[in-house]
C-alpha cells in the first residue's frame, strides 16, 4: 500500500465521525504517513451521541489536545442553511441540498483548526465516486490554496470491504457486529436532512422500503386532522413559530418535528452527480420542505415581480454551485449578495397547514406587502385602476406578434 501525497506530512486534520470508516482512516494516516492526527468531529444535528468519538480517538493514540468536538448547529443553520433558503434553492427541481450544504462548514473548520495547530494537511472520508470529495476539497483549496489534501479512498490499496475490516481487526479497531455483513444502505444526516443511498436503494425501479425512512412517518400514517401554525420572517429568515422567538437551529428543529409528525419532506430521487454518474437516493427534509414553502409564501406578497422572477432565474445556477461544492467561490458570493439584497423587505407572517405529507400556505401578511386589495378587487368604487389603460398596453405588446403574423400571411 502506498501513499500518493506530493508533500511530506507531519500533522493532518481529519474530518472524523468516530465511525468505522474514519477510524480506519485515522489509523491508516498514522501507519502510512507516520503523521500526527488531529480529529475534528462536528455536531451538525445528525442525531446520536458524538462524544464517544473522543474516547475512540484517544484509544487510537490521538493526543487530548488534538481532539476537537464542536456543536456547530447554530452556525450551520444561520450561516449556511438560511442563506441557501433565501434563494429558494432546489437542485434539479426537487433536492433541497441537505448533504451539500454541510460540507463547506466542515471544510472551513478543518482549515481553521489546521492553522490553529500548525497542521500541514487535511483529510476526509469521502469515496472516489461521490460528490463529497469534490465539495470538501474545493472548500479546502478555496480557503487555503496550498494545503495538502489526503483522500484515503483514492490512495489506499484496499480492494474490498473485507480488506478494510481485516485492517481494522489487525489494528484493534472496534467493529460493530453487523459490519461484517452488508449494510442495507448508507445514511448521512444533519439538522437539515437525512439521505439514504446504496444497497436496497440501488435499483431505481424498486420502491424504497419503509424502514429506510429516518426522519418522517409515512403520509398514510399521519394524523387525520391538519396541523396549523404561523411562522414569522425578518429579512428573509424565519425568526419565530406561533409568535415565539427562537434561534435558527431551534426553529429548524421545531420544523423538523412538525414535518415528521405530518409525513412531510420525503423525496425519492435519481440525480446527476457532479462526477458524471446518476445516483438514486432517498432524502428526508421535513423542516426544510416547510421552510421553502413558507419563504415563498412571504415573498409572494413582499417581492416585486421583476425581483422575484430574476431570483427564480438565478436559483438553478446557485443550486448547482452549492451542489457541486463551490460555496466559497466568487460567483456564489456574487449571487448571494443579489439574493440578500432582495430580502430587505421580506418580513412578515405566514400561516401554514400541514396534512398528510402536504404543506399549504393559507395566509400571509406583512408591513411591507405589495398586495393592494383596491387594485385587484372586482368591485367598483375606488379609482385605483383604469380598465381602459389595458387596451393600449395589450396593443403595444401585441405589435411584434401582429407584424410577424402579417408577414406569415403574405408568404403563404
From TrEMBL:
It is an enzyme of class 6 (ligase). GO terms for cellular component: cytoplasm. L-citrulline binds at residues 95, 100, 131, 135, 186, 195, 271, 283. L-aspartate binds at residues 127, 131-132. Residues 185-403 form the Arginosuccinate synthase C-terminal domain. ATP binds at residues 15-23, 42, 125. One of its GO terms (biological process) is L-arginine biosynthetic process. It comes from the Bacteria. It catalyses: L-citrulline + L-aspartate + ATP = 2-(N(omega)-L-arginino)succinate + AMP + diphosphate + H(+). Its EC number is 6.3.4.5. One of its GO terms (molecular function) is ATP binding. Pathway: Amino-acid biosynthesis; L-arginine biosynthesis; L-arginine from L-ornithine and carbamoyl phosphate: step 2/3. It is found in: Cytoplasm. PROSITE patterns: ARGININOSUCCIN_SYN_1 (PS00564), ARGININOSUCCIN_SYN_2 (PS00565). Keywords: Amino-acid biosynthesis, Arginine biosynthesis, ATP-binding, Cytoplasm, Ligase, Nucleotide-binding. InterPro entries: Arginosuc_syn_C, Arginosuc_syn_N, Arginosuc_synth, Arginosuc_synth_CS, Arginosuc_synth_type_1_subfam, AS_cat/multimer_dom_body, Rossmann-like_a/b/a_fold. Belongs to the argininosuccinate synthase family. Type 1 subfamily. PANTHER family: ARGININOSUCCINATE SYNTHASE (PTHR11587). Homotetramer. This is Argininosuccinate synthase. The lineage of its organism: Bacteria, Pseudomonadati, Pseudomonadota, Alphaproteobacteria, Caulobacterales.
Amino acid at each position: 500500500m502506498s501513499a500518493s501525497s506530493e508533500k511530506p506530512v507531519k500533522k493532518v486534520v481529519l474530518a472524523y465521525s468516530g465511525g468505522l470508516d474514519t477510524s480506519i482512516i485515522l489509523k491508516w494516516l498514522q501507519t502510512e504517513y507516520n503523521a500526527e492526527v488531529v480529529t475534528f468531529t462536528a455536531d451538525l444535528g445528525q442525531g446520536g451521541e458524538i462524544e464517544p468519538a473522543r474516547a475512540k480517538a484517544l484509544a487510537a493514540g490521538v493526543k487530548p489536545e488534538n481532539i476537537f468536538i464542536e456543536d456547530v448547529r447554530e452556525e450551520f443553520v444561520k450561516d449556511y442553511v438560511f442563506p441557501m433558503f433565501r434563494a429558494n434553492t432546489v437542485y434539479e427541481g426537487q433536492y433541497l441540498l441537505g448533504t451539500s450544504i454541510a460540507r463547506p462548514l466542515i471544510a472551513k473548520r478543518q482549515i481553521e483548526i489546521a492553522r490553529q495547530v500548525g497542521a500541514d494537511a487535511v483529510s476526509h472520508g469521502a469515496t472516489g465516486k461521490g460528490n463529497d470529495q469534490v465539495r470538501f476539497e474545493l472548500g479546502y483549496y478555496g480557503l487555503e490554496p496550498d494545503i495538502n489534501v489526503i483522500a484515503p479512498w483514492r490512495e489506499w490499496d484496499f480492494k474490498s470491504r473485507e480488506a478494510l475490516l481485516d485492517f481494522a481487526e489487525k489494528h484493534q479497531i472496534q467493529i460493530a457486529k453487523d459490519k461484517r455483513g452488508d449494510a442495507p444502505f448508507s445514511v448521512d444526516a444533519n439538522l437539515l436532512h437525512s439521505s439514504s443511498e446504496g444497497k436496497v436503494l440501488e435499483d431505481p425501479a424498486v420502491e424504497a422500503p419503509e424502514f429506510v425512512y429516518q426522519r418522517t412517518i409515512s403520509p398514510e400514517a399521519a394524523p387525520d386532522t391538519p396541523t396549523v401554525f404561523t411562522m414569522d420572517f425578518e429579512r428573509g429568515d424565519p425568526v419565530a413559530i406561533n409568535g415565539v422567538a427562537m434561534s435558527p437551529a431551534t426553529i429548524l428543529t421545531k420544523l423538523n418535528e412538525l414535518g415528521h409528525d405530518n409525513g412531510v419532506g420525503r423525496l425519492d430521487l435519481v440525480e446527476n452527480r457532479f462526477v458524471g454518474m446518476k445516483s438514486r437516493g432517498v432524502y428526508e427534509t421535513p423542516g426544510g420542505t416547510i421552510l421553502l414553502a413558507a419563504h415563498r409564501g412571504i415573498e409572494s406578497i413582499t417581492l416585486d415581480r421583476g425581483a422575484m422572477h430574476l431570483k427564480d432565474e438565478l436559483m438553478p445556477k446557485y443550486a448547482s454551485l452549492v451542489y457541486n461544492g463551490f460555496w466559497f467561490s466568487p460567483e456564489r458570493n456574487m449571487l448571494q449578495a443579489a439574493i440578500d439584497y432582495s430580502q430587505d423587505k421580506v418580513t412578515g407572517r405566514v400561516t401554514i397547514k400541514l396534512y398528510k405529507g402536504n404543506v399549504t400556505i393559507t395566509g400571509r401578511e406583512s408591513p411591507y406587502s405589495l398586495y393592494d386589495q383596491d387594485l385587484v378587487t372586482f368591485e367598483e368604487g375606488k379609482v385605483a385602476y383604469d380598465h381602459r389603460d389595458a387596451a393600449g398596453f395589450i396593443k403595444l405588446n401585441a405589435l411584434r406578434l401582429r407584424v410577424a403574423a402579417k408577414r406569415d400571411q403574405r408568404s403563404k
